[in-house]
TrEMBL record:
This is EAL domain-containing protein. The lineage of its organism: Bacteria, Pseudomonadati, Spirochaetota, Spirochaetia, Leptospirales. Pfam families: EAL (PF00563), GGDEF (PF00990), PAS_9 (PF13426). Residues 278-328 form the PAC domain. PANTHER family: BIOFILM ARCHITECTURE MAINTENANCE PROTEIN MBAA, DIGUANYLATE CYCLASE DGCP. NCBIfam families: GGDEF, sensory_box. The chain crosses the membrane at residues 26-49, 55-73, 80-98, 133-150, 170-188. It comes from Leptonema illini. Keywords: Membrane, Transmembrane, Transmembrane helix. InterPro entries: Biofilm_reg_signaling (IPR052155), EAL_dom (IPR001633), EAL_sf (IPR035919), GGDEF_dom (IPR000160), Nucleotide_cyclase (IPR029787), PAS (IPR000014), PAS-assoc_C (IPR000700), PAS-like_dom_sf (IPR035965).
Length: 744
């Protein structure tokens, strides 16, 4: 019944939440019932003790006014309801006082006190605009207690004092109370308004914060990157991507450090201890034990009383694999898996920047185009793959093997120990390529031409070294030797070479060269057995030109034939000038071009006769390669020279082809072991075995043995033990001009 009087429509109730509205409604019902019961109780007492018609009317007025006030409260006008109650109570008190003063109807203390209690209760309970949720019950109970206390005082005063005095005191008390309640209500209303405003602002802020937090969670969950909020290494919150990435939930007993592998935890600590935004790549472990590589970015979120670390992690495992594949393709040949030119250039330049030495070997496959045209490109590709596999296995790190062209393989040698080492490795490189290779059921024996260059002699950058190796490779292909080390004379486009070629013919015609003589010493008695003649050319602008540069240049420019015959003529002239006091044997190198010239032997024999020289005093040194191009004509020339009594020897033995097959056919008296074997003999046991075997073989064929490149006594002593006949090198004497020989 009373509950229906208080729907949720009043404005002051709508400002409360659901729980507050329910409590306020219950309190209003309770107070309304209390008023009605109190009034009914007073009315019953008056009827039982002494009927007071006037009082009954007044009580009826109070009841009517109470319902009027409740109706006003129901319509959201509590202040008007309170004012009406105050007016009714004040009017009732004045009217009762008038009745008592005129004697029309004297009042007793109890009735006065009851009326005062009812009036004060109504004024106190309904005088405020609203009963707040938190303070309403306490405030109302306090007013009730005050009413009961004042009722006791009134009872005591009404029984001992006159009605007029009592009434005046009551009026004063009621007026003061009304004013006090009004003032307190104003203060309370303003405070409540301020609190309500702050509460509304706080509620709006909290609502905004909740919406922001919801947006943050939706945003973080929508992210593909794992987002973690951490404090002291503990994971406070994590988004959905974190769970999908690692298999862990934020509630799992796991720390950020526990996610990272042991070898990367120092990186993680550095990341978490930094005050700035940093990133790091970390190897992590999933819940199932699998590993992944993540890029982690960290930033600090500072609060007034604490700081939280935000860590964002992105899975870059596949990205890194793809990047490594791209980098591998960028620096490696797709067909063979060997390095490409870019990797070769980068590695070479890094070695040169460090001030180290390096060498480049460039191998070009001979007749590879014919293989492709005959057997097809798929077969050619399979052949290249097989060769690449063999080269890679033959030359592991620190060597770098590359494919720099369709049929070109390149080998980078870091820190080579001189040209001899480069030549040895070039020979091994050639052997690895030239061995028979079976591909798709077909066995082929490959042939290659290798050019070598090395820093700093042939260049200080990659392009220069690679160009020099390319020049040497084509020189090896033209000469048929298979291997060539770069020399400026080989470079067809070298300005120095062009200048030398233009002046070489004039030099030969004008005999603008000088002969130097290097002694050949008997290793047993240390006597000088003869001299090797070496040509020295001092160019007017380029200075001294070594034989290593002069002879290939003369062969390329077709001057070698005339140069050889001119040197022989000058040598015979020098021998004639020393006679009769000094009659040494002088050895002159003869090129392949001379041997294939049918008239060469006759011109030499004619010169010997003109100078009246013993033919045995002239020794002609012939290289093994001289018999490769036209062996029959070369053999006829050698036989004719031998018939004339000229001494013949094989020069640079061990570096040519088919050496043993010619030893039995050629009418030679000696062979010279190439200096590349002699210089390394002390350090390399295999070279000792080769030298010793060659000496025994030559002696078995009745040939004398001459060792080139003897540079110290240890080498000479070892050669004596091997019963080598003669030695030649700087240990016995450097090449000197003719006048210096006569002064010895």
């Amino acid at each position: 019944m009373f509950r229906s009087l208080f729907p949720e429509s009043p404005a002051y109730l709508r400002q409360l939440n659901a729980a507050g509205r329910e409590r306020a409604r219950a309190l209003f019902v309770f107070l309304n019932a209390l008023i009605l019961i109190s009034t009914a109780f007073i009315l019953a007492l008056n009827l039982l003790l002494k009927p007071l018609p006037t009082v009954n009317v007044l009580i009826a007025a109070v009841i009517v006014s109470s319902f009027l006030c409740l109706w006003l409260l129901h319509n959201g006008r509590p202040q008007l309801a309170g004012n009406i109650i105050n007016a009714v109570v004040f009017s009732v008190i004045l009217y009762l006082t008038y009745l008592d003063a005129t004697g029309v109807h004297p009042l007793h203390g109890f009735t006065q006190t009851g009326m005062m209690a009812a009036g004060l209760a109504l004024a106190g309970l309904f005088g405020s605009k609203r009963l707040p949720l938190v303070f309403g019950l306490v405030y109302s109970l306090t007013l009730l207690g005050l009413v009961f206390y004042l009722s006791s005082l009134h009872n005591w005063s009404a029984l001992r004092r006159s009605t007029v005095e009592f009434t005046l005191d009551g009026i004063i008390a009621l007026a003061a109370g009304s004013i006090l309640i009004f003032l307190l209500r104003r203060i309370y209303d303003r405070s409540l308004a301020a609190i309500s405003t702050r509460n509304r602002r706080l509620e709006r802020f909290l609502s905004s914060l909740r919406r922001s937090e919801e947006r943050f969670h939706r945003l973080s969950d929508a992210s593909f990157e794992a987002v973690v909020l951490s404090q002291d290494g503990r994971i406070l919150e994590a988004n959905r991507a974190f769970t999908e990435l690692f298999g862990h939930n934020a509630d799992d007993d796991v720390t950020i450090e526990g996610l990272v592998s042991a070898e990367h935890r120092d990186r993680l600590r550095s990341l978490l201890n930094s005050d700035s935004r940093k990133s790091a790549e970390l190897l992590c472990k999933r819940k199932d034990g699998s590993t992944l590589l993540v890029e982690a970015r960290s930033s600090i979120i500072k609060n007034p009383d604490s700081a939280v670390r935000s860590v964002v992690m992105r899975d870059i495992t596949n990205e890194r694999k793809n990047l490594e594949q791209l980098e591998h393709l960028a620096y490696h040949d797709a067909l063979t898996g060997l390095g490409n030119r870019k990797l070769l250039q980068q590695t070479t330049e890094s070695i040169l920047v460090e001030g180290r030495r390096c060498a480049i070997l460039l191998a070009d496959l001979d007749r590879f185009k014919e293989i492709n045209d005959t057997l097809g490109h798929p077969f050619g590709d399979a052949l290249l793959q097989g060769l690449a596999h063999r080269i890679r296995e033959s030359f592991p790190a620190p060597f770098l093997t590359c494919r720099t062209g369709g049929d070109e393989f390149t080998l980078l040698i870091p820190d080579p120990d001189g040209e001899n080492m480069v030549r040895d490795i070039a020979q091994s490189f050639s052997d690895a390529i030239n061995r028979a290779l079976r591909t798709d059921g077909v066995t082929l024996e490959m042939q290659c031409s290798i050019g070598a260059s090395y820093a700093p002699n042939h260049g200080s950058d990659f392009e220069a070294l690679f160009r020099c190796a390319d020049v040497a490779m084509y020189a090896a292909k033209r000469s048929g030797t298979g291997i060539a080390v770069y020399a400026s004379i080989l470079d067809l486009h070298n300005p120095r070479r062009l200048m030398l070629l233009s002046d070489l013919g004039r030099m030969v015609r004008e005999r603008a060269f000088e002969l130097h003589f290097q002694p050949k010493v008997d290793l047993i008695n240390h006597d000088i057995d003869g001299y090797e003649v070496l040509t020295r050319w001092t160019h007017p602008r380029l200075g001294s030109i070594s034989p290593a540069e002069l002879i290939p240049l003369a062969e390329t420019g077709n001057h070698i034939g005339l140069l050889t015959e001119t040197v022989i003529d000058v040598t015979l002239e020098q021998m004639r000038s020393w006679m009769p006091q000094f009659k040494p044997t002088l050895a002159v190198n003869v090129s392949a071009r001379n041997l294939v010239d049918e008239m060469f032997p006759e011109r030499v024999i004619q010169a010997i006769e003109e100078y009246n020289i013993n033919p045995a005093q002239l020794e002609l040194e012939i290289t093994e390669s001289a018999f490769m191009h036209d062996p029959q004509r070369a053999l006829q020339s050698v036989l004719r020279l031998n018939q004339a009594g000229i001494t013949l020897s094989i020069d640079d033995f061990g570096t040519g082809y088919s050496s043993l097959s010619y030893l039995t056919d050629l009418p030679v008296q000696a062979l010279k072991i190439d200096l590349s074997f002699i210089r390394e003999m002390i350090k390399k046991e295999k070279h000792q075995i080769l030298v010793s075997s060659t000496i025994q073989l030559a002696h078995g064929l009745g040939l004398a043995v001459i060792a080139e490149g003897v540079e110290n006594e240890d080498t000479a002593r070892a050669l004596r033990k091997m019963e080598c006949d003669f030695g030649q090198g700087f240990h016995f004497g450097a090449p000197v001009p003719a006048p210096a020989i006569m002064r010895r």
